[in-house]
Structure formats: structure tokens, C-alpha cells
Design brief:
single chain; alpha/beta; Rossmann fold; 2 domains; three-stranded antiparallel beta sheet; globular; binds adenosine-5'-diphosphate; binds magnesium ion
Length: 238
């Protein structure tokens, strides 16, 4: 039996940069199953919170505790950036890369990568250089590469921000499939429709503070905070 990685406890975390608090102080817990969506205006701290949870941004204060050591936890989570990182090699080798890093033999890594590539809709371009893919295809590649190790937790930072509705729909289907297989997903978006479609719960941030964390239906139908009500109405927030 593999030890569970969750809950993740964030205790009084605070991120200060250039003499300014850009996140926190914030305490919260990530647990259970499903998809949590981070919403909030530009600059509210969504990216910083995602990176802090994933361990690529160091908090100035506070604690981040997984149920296993931070080193072990790191190996069981993945991150998809708004602008996907693409390696100068074939699509297949991009997707296979995390397996190669873990010492999986090339042939076997490529077989697994090809299956996943087919599944995310990149079957026809597997042998092509990844550099020439469209934006939507690059994001599918990034997602396939993030999923190839079947992470327990997947963080995504506005992965569909620059994509058309077709690519967005495909990405959402891949995410739902990963969720159904037990991957806990935490994703930032400011696409309200996407949040309504995917979220189990919403974490609403404003000015670095977690203003509310509520089940989706409650967030959209009866948000608790005046700030979230204004945000949903489309008002400009201070
Ligand atoms: N390295 C940094 N140094 C100084 N300020 C930063 C740094 N990174 C982010 N910020 C600032 O922190 C705030 C939160 O940023 P961010 O987490 O990117 O918000 P969001 O993703 O919600 O748009 C913004 O005001 C941003 O300008
Ligand atoms: Mg951001």
C-alpha cells in the first residue's frame, strides 16, 4: 500500500517579494478527491499559491506539510504552466521524458508515451518535432507529459488561457479522465464557464488572501464574500 500524500496542510504561509507580501498569511488544507479551481483577479496570487504548494516557490514564512516527506511528495505531483515548456525533440520523446529521467528503458518509455499521446489526441504528430505544434497541441503535450507518471496531485496554471474552444474542450476531457483515475487537481482559471464545468470547489483569492473556499454551486449561486459577489458580477475590484 502506497502511503497517501494528502491532506496537504498549509499553515500561515506568507510569500514576500521585493519587500511586499504577495501571498498570505494563508492557512488551508487540500484534501479529498476532485478538482479545486483557484479564481481571483490578476495579481491576486493564484500562480504564487500554486507554485508554493508545488514547492517551486519558497514561502517566506509558514509551513507546507504533505503526509509524506517533501522529497517524496515532489515525485508524486506535476505542474502544467500557462505557457507550456517544450523540449527540442519529437512529440513522443517530450511525452516520454519523465519516464526516461526515472531510468525507464527508452523502448518501454516510448510505448507508454505513444499510448498516452494517442489518448490526448496527438497520435498523428508523435514523430514530429514538438516545436512546430499549435498552442493547443503544445498544451496537450504538456498535459500528457505531466500525466505520464500518474501523479497523485496535478497543479495547472490557466492551461487554456490562450486556446480556442475546441482545444479547451479536449483539455477539459483529459482533466476529467485524470480526475476519475484519482488524480487530485488544483487549477487556476479566470474562465467562469470552465470553473462551472470542472470545479468541485472554488478557492477565491484577492490581494494575496484566500477570501473563501466553497463548493462550486455555493460559490456561483450564493458567494459568501462581497468581494466574490463583485468579482462574479464583473465589477472591477480594488
Ligand atoms: N518574483 C516576484 N517579485 C515581486 N512581485 C511578484 C513576484 N511574483 C509575483 N509578484 C506579484 O505578486 C502578485 C501576485 O502574482 P501572481 O501570483 O502571479 O497572481 P495571479 O496569478 O493571480 O495573477 C502580483 O502583484 C505580482 O506582480
Ligand atoms: Mg497567474
Amino acid at each position: 500500500m502506497v502511503a497517501p500524500i494528502l491532506p496537504l496542510n498549509l499553515t500561515s504561509i506568507e510569500v514576500r517579494r521585493s519587500g511586499r507580501t504577495i501571498l498570505g498569511p494563508l492557512s488551508h488544507r487540500l484534501e479529498g478527491r476532485g478538482i479545486s479551481i483557484l479564481m481571483g483577479p490578476n495579481g491576486s496570487g493564484k500562480t504564487t499559491l500554486l507554485k508554493t504548494m508545488h514547492g517551486i516557490e519558497r514561502p517566506t514564512r509558514g509551513q507546507i506539510d504533505w503526509q509524506i516527506t517533501a522529497e517524496e511528495a515532489r515525485l508524486r505531483q506535476a505542474f502544467v504552466f500557462q505557457t507550456p515548456t517544450i523540449l527540442r525533440r519529437s512529440v513522443l520523446d517530450n511525452i516520454a521524458f519523465p519516464l526516461l529521467l526515472r531510468g525507464v528503458p527508452r523502448k518501454s518509455a516510448q510505448t507508454t508515451a505513444a499510448e498516452l499521446g494517442e489518448k490526448v489526441g496527438l497520435g498523428k504528430v508523435l514523430q514530429q518535432s514538438a516545436m512546430v505544434l499549435s498552442g493547443g497541441e503544445k498544451q496537450k503535450l504538456a498535459l500528457a507529459r505531466a500525466l505520464i507518471l500518474a501523479p497523485d496531485v496535478l497543479f495547472l496554471d490557466e492551461p487554456c488561457a490562450n486556446l480556442d474552444s475546441r482545444a479547451t474542450r479536449d483539455i477539459e476531457a483529459i482533466l476529467c479522465d485524470a480526475r476519475d483515475r484519482g488524480t487530485r487537481i488544483v487549477m487556476a482559471t479566470h474562465d467562469h464557464g470552465q470553473a462551472r464545468r470542472l470545479a468541485d470547489e472554488i478557492w477565491f483569492l484577492h490581494a494575496g488572501k484566500l477570501i473563501e473556499s466553497t463548493p462550486k454551486t455555493q460559490f456561483f449561486d450564493a458567494p459568501q464574500s462581497a468581494m466574490a459577489r463583485a468579482y462574479l458580477k464583473g465589477d472591477l475590484l480594488p
